[in-house]
Write a structure and sequence with these properties.
Elements (H helix, E strand, L loop, with lengths): L5 E6 L5 E7 L2 E8 L9 H13 L1 E6 L16 H15 L4 E6 L1 H12 L4 E7 L5 H8 L2 H10 L1 E6 L2 E7 H7 L15 E6 L8 H9 L5 E6 L9 H15 L3
Parallel strand pairs: 3-4, 3-5, 5-6, 6-9, 9-10
Antiparallel strand pairs: 1-2, 2-4, 7-8
Helix pairs in contact: 2-3
């Protein structure tokens, strides 16, 4: 069994404090990377924390700047900035190889980290992974949204998960610098992609596109026919535990 969960705040280097929670334990460690406009207290993060505690496995979760308990403002965030947050947390709070578990946007961040810090990543699990999602948002922007972004730099997009949330011009434009699927993704670590086929935000075919782009041989896609975007039902969490457990055991 791993010890009690620690928590703290890490200065990302510019005075913005990133909130984190960590369980110490054996390696490889597990790092959870949340989604766009989410935080580290969601059901997947909580379930993974308990799962790793039961195995004595090291586990880390955190909030990007402008998310959850971290400092900063959401509207100042971009894919690059949030990837820097993740890199700072990985460097300061983990040791040795890690398995990255990325949900939605966190799947994009996880892929970026795996490409940039290959020696630190032992495997990757994507849950409705959404690399390049800013291009889909941009393509679907209605005329009034484009006008608002041109005029004010931000548009508040309606959400099925709560209040409308801001989509900034900076998010869209800066996201173009981090696109992955226009070329091959040279990863050799094991990759598992869990994807609901009733996901209204990330088409299930996107998981196949990611798998095709990854150049390594050990890539598996698991489609959940009645699964939604969050994949947070009890049966979805059991699936995630099985997939993570197998990866931790080398399978």
């Amino acid at each position: 069994m791993s010890g009690e969960e620690e928590q703290g705040r890490l200065d990302r280097g510019d005075g913005t404090a990133l909130a984190w929670r960590r369980r110490r334990g054996r390696g490889p460690g597990v790092v959870f990377l949340g989604g766009f406009n989410s935080d580290m207290t969601g059901s997947k993060a909580e379930d993974l924390s308990a799962f790793c505690a039961g195995r004595g496995q090291a586990f880390l979760r955190f909030d990007y700047s402008g998310h959850g308990a971290s400092g900063g403002h959401f509207v100042d965030g971009t894919i690059g900035r949030w990837a820097e947050d993740a890199a700072a947390v990985l460097a300061a709070l983990t040791e040795g190889p890690q398995i990255l578990v990325g949900s939605s946007m966190g799947g994009w961040i996880a892929l970026l980290l795996a490409l940039r810090q290959r020696e630190r990543v032992a495997g990757l699990i994507g849950i409705a992974a959404a690399p390049d999602f800013t291009t889909r948002i941009e393509a679907a922007l209605p005329a009034e949204a484009r006008a608002a972004m041109a005029r004010e730099g931000v548009w508040h997009r309606p959400s099925a998960y709560g209040d409308p949330y801001p989509i900034t011009r900076a998010l869209i434009e800066e996201g173009r610098r981090h696109l992955l699927l226009q070329a091959g993704v040279p990863l050799a670590v094991p990759v598992r992609l869990l994807q609901g086929q009733r996901d209204p935000d990330v088409p299930w075919e996107h998981a196949l596109r990611i798998a095709e782009a990854i150049e390594g041989p050990d890539v598996q896609v698991v489609l959940v026919k009645d699964g939604d975007h969050r994949l947070s039902r009890p049966q979805d969490l059991r699936l995630l535990r099985r997939v993570l457990g197998a990866m931790l055991e080398g399978g």
